[in-house]
Recover the amino acids of this structure.
């Protein structure tokens, strides 16, 4: 298990952090489902992280928030699929995920960026996936800074 | 031509019927009450509600229009953008109907529906005709899932010249309303509250004001609003916020937010008008019901000697299927209907320029 705690001071830095992770997961894309479980309040940089990830993987079109559409699919130039799901305010996320196409995304060995409520047993959702948990938080009295912890779950 | 339209793109089940540009029926079954507890649309609930509501909404539309099933000459259905699980229900119903009645089916982009709602003829008054328009025109589409500036070269020929890079304006309204303790969807209630407040009471940003392009951002405004609200209270827990604010604070917050949200898009409309000599501006989408936006856009249009068009009636601004039927009728005049219905699929991220 490896862990990273980073303070970013701008949206641009949050995107760069995502770019580093993009390099790390790139060789494994398409060989197994990879899930980033992103937790944090609105405005803490989760979507910026997803934008940075998509751009680093060569996706050139606009990446927006899925808080309205719940699921955004981004076909990557490599032929792999990246999915951004917003499940954090759903009443029964595990059940709603199935409706949103969860199993199909897993079968496609997709890269899944999952905005998700805290305190969940991740492995039940997809034991076969590579899970990386991301925690996003504000830094007191620093408007543009964010505390981001990324942790691989074994 | 009698066209029946179906829209299940989000949380409203709607069936509309038009005869050419005249609206004969526009039935909307809202699921707001079902989703209110969760502060937004819940996919499981939405899909089931669409399935359960559709037959009654369909029968009601036929009754309102005074037509029988056999009178329908074409079907139009929203196939994107929207929630995949919701879109699927309407699309399946549309395919079944088109096959049963052996009539053409036109797959419609939901955003195009919001645009052509401006051509709806309701009641006695003659409506706006596409022949009245000098092209290109500018469409300002403001909704819960969309914020776009579209250059309309002609009907069916669209170029997205500006859009939100994150959240939509309607979503920002709804989320900020929730912070103030207003029930989902709180946008219209926030606008009503803003009437009683001072829009200069609090300072909020106009994100991307300085950017040269025509894009807008609402995530930054939403975050700034959360910060502002928290700076006024002691307990920052989201569900404890409303009870710590006074009535006049809430009104001032609503007014300040509304002013920022509307100015954010107006700055870019102004820029678009400076770039191209548009003589016609179309407003569309749920936020088109907002009175302040209407007033400010009217003033801006007058200054630029352009005509501002707004869909006739609030029902035609929000998600509805009469606008989809209209888009179907207009599409039937320039394109062929869908050929292989079995392969027709929803496209949740469909764009107007695709």
């Amino acid at each position: 298990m490896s862990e990273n705690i980073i303070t970013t001071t701008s949206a641009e830095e949050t995107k760069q952090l995502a770019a580093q992770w993009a390099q790390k997961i790139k060789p494994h894309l398409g060989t197994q489902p990879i899930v980033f479980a992103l937790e944090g309040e609105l405005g803490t940089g989760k979507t910026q992280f997803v934008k940075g990830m998509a751009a680093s993987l060569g996706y050139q079109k606009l990446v927006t928030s899925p808080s309205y559409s719940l699921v955004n699919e981004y076909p990557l130039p490599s032929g792999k699929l990246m999915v951004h799901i917003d499940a954090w305010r759903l009443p029964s996320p595990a059940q709603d995920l199935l409706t949103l196409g969860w199993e199909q995304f897993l079968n496609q060995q997709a890269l899944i960026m999952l905005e998700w409520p805290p305190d969940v047993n991740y492995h039940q959702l997809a034991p076969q996936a590579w899970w990386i948990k991301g925690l996003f938080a504000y830094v007191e009295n620093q408007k543009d800074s964010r505390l981001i912890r990324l942790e691989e779950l074994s | 031509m009698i066209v029946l339209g179906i829209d299940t793109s989000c949380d409203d089940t709607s069936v509309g019927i038009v005869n050419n540009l005249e609206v004969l029926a526009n039935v909307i079954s809202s699921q707001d009450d079902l989703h209110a507890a969760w502060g937004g649309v819940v996919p499981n609930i939405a899909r089931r509600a669409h399935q359960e509501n559709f037959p009654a909404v369909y029968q009601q539309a036929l009754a309102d229009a005074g037509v029988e099933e056999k009178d329908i000459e074409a079907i139009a259905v929203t196939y994107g953008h929207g929630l995949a699980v919701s879109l699927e229900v309407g699309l399946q119903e549309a395919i079944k109907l088109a096959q049963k009645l052996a009539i053409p089916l036109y797959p419609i982009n939901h955003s195009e529906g919001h645009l052509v709602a401006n051509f709806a003829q309701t009641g006695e008054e003659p409506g706006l005709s596409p022949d009245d328009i000098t092209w290109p025109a500018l469409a300002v589409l403001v909704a819960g899932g969309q914020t776009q500036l579209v250059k309309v070269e002609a009907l069916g020929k669209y170029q997205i010249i500006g859009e939100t890079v994150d959240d939509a304006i309607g979503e920002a309204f709804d989320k900020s309303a929730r912070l103030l303790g207003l029930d989902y969807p709180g946008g219209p209630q926030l606008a009503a509250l803003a009437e009683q407040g001072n829009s200069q009471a609090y300072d909020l940003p106009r994100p991307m004001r300085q950017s040269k392009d025509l894009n807008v951002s609402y995530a930054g405004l939403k975050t700034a609003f959360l910060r502002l609200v928290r700076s006024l209270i002691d307990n920052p827990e989201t569900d404890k916020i409303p009870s710590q604010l006074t009535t006049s604070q809430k009104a001032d917050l609503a007014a300040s937010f509304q002013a920022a949200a509307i100015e954010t898009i107006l700055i870019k409309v102004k820029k678009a008008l400076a770039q191209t000599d548009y003589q016609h501006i179309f407003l569309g989408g749920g936020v088109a019901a907002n009175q302040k936006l209407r007033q400010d856009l009217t003033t801006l249009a007058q200054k630029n000697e352009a005509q501002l068009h707004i869909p006739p009636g609030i029902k035609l601004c929000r998600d509805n299927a009469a606008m989809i039927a209209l888009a179907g009728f207009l599409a039937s005049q320039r394109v062929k209907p869908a050929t292989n219905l079995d392969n027709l699929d929803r496209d949740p991220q469909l764009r107007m320029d695709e």
